[in-house]
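Supplementary notes for students who missed Thursday's class. We covered one full example, reproduced here. Read the sequence, then the structure, then the short commentary at the end.
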Amino acid sequence: MQKSLGFRDDDAIWSILMALQYYDSLYSQYPKAIGAEASRILGDVKAAAEASLKASIATARADLAKAVGSAARDVARDIARRESIRWAVAGMALGVMLLGTGAGVGIYVDRQLSAPVIGAVVKK
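Structure (token representation):
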């Protein structure tokens, strides 16, 4: 190649070619190193994303459990309130009926006691 191109042994092109060959061998290693580093970084990012996802899932589950518990307490409180009102109304109705019955029995007994007895002597 040297003779066909007409280069001499002390020509400056040889220094340039040697420098280019050095840089070619030097820089041919960088794509592999960059690829390895990119794979490592991608693995780190993937691990961090999975950890963040697991933490988010755990937080969401805890929040959901808290919300369900709160809703269950609210529903139970509303049902208990409705039932207590129902029993209070039923108790008041029963009280009114018992009061009416007592008043009726009292009036009946009073009339029976104040009525004249047949054959009794009435004093004047």
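Commentary. Residues 30-114 form the longest helix (85 residues). The chain has a mean pLDDT of 87. If anything here is unclear, bring it to office hours.
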